[in-house]
Design brief:
With 167 residues, the chain is mainly alpha-helical. Helix content is 75%, strand content 0%. The chain contains 6 helices and no strands. The chain is globular and about 50 Å long.
Amino acid sequence: GGARTFSVFVDMHRLRPVMSAVMQSHRSMSATGSRTHQNLKDALKYLSINSKRYEFMAQQADCDGLIEAAAAFRALSYGESSQALGTLEFFLDLGDPATDQPLGGTVANLEAALASETIESKQVFPAFAAEAREEGHEEIAEWFERLAHNQSNHAITVQQELSRVNP
């Protein structure tokens, strides 16, 4: 048969006005610190990981010449990404899932991004590199060090934009 079209996923961007209205009506019911809050963080983690996994799998399917399989993986990736974006809407009340800093406006978002990139570059990835090296995984340690360097560059970029937007 011909190429298939995959349209089984809800475009969360179209639901944004609906979700915003729902969020406004439930502002007094904050889930901060609850098991539901942690479940939202976990859901975001799974959706985000799956989005990237499926993108990776689509690339492999392309290399294997399996175009329809690649299209199916890309559709799955898009669906997972859309669902992750929808899940992030709840964090407007709860704070950034990575830093617990406020989210919403661009300045707040830049501040949360800066905090996250700084933590990753100075603490998370260097600790991962040290542990990998301690366990004898030099190539992985070097990868984590590259990630730390990249996150440091990201932090510089975010700081520059924050300074420009909020002098």
